[in-house]
Design goal:
Layout lengths: L6 H31 L24 E9 L11 E6 L9 E6 L5 E7 L10 E8 L2 E9 L4 E3 L1 H6 L10 E3 L2 E3 L2 E2 L1
Parallel strand pairs: 1-9, 1-10
Antiparallel strand pairs: 1-4, 2-3, 2-5, 5-6, 6-7, 8-9
Protein name: Intradiol ring-cleavage dioxygenases domain-containing protein
InterPro entries: Intradiol_dOase_core (IPR015889)
Keywords: Signal
């Protein structure tokens, strides 16, 4: 006895296979674009220029992050560098805390934000993208109740800062310098 499949069943199966192939190829292209565009999750190129990222001045813990942007070769402050920052919002797994800043004539920047939430198994962190001309650099600042820390990659790429390399946390204020 021969097994005969209906034409409708054949068309349905072919359609499902085609949709699956289209979905997989488009999602892999999308994830490849996201990873190549910026290696950190939550980056938003359309963030607003602002220095206060807090949702409310009254609720929760706040931290102030200040620092200088230096030229990697000369260790001189860089005026007009664009700094983009973002982090997970408190009690959420969404990146609603985002802003852009411009370094002043002395290369200084400053912003205040709510204490960031943490991804599972990671320390809370604030992501940075610094741009000046054709040069772009991304890094992250790790924070907790006891201090602030840098990653090994940040340490390697910012050695010219010397004593200015390590972030300094005093109560709710953090000094974080970056060289590009």
């Amino acid at each position: 006895m021969k097994k005969i499949t209906s034409r409708r069943l054949f068309i349905r199966n072919v359609s499902m296979a085609s949709l699956g192939a289209v979905y997989l190829s488009s999602s892999s292209k999308l994830s490849a674009f996201t990873l190549n565009e910026n290696s950190f999750a939550g980056y938003n190129p359309y963030a607003e220029y602002k220095t206060d990222l807090r949702v409310s001045e009254l609720i929760g813990k706040h931290i102030t992050v200040k620092g200088k942007i230096f030229c990697k070769n000369k260790l001189e402050p860089i005026e007009g560098a664009k700094i983009e920052v973002w982090h997970l919002s408190p009690n959420s797994f969404k990146y609603r805390h985002q802003a852009k800043l411009i370094a002043n004539k002395q290369g200084e920047y400053s912003f205040i934000t709510d204490f960031p939430n943490k991804e599972s198994g990671k320390t809370p962190r604030i992501y940075f993208k610094i741009s000046k001309g054709d040069t772009t650099y991304t890094t992250e600042l790790l924070v907790n109740d006891f201090g602030s820390y840098i990653t090994g990659e940040h340490w390697e790429k910012n050695q010219t800062l010397g004593d200015l390399l390590q972030p300094v946390k005093k109560q709710s204020n953090i000094q974080f310098n970056i060289s590009i």
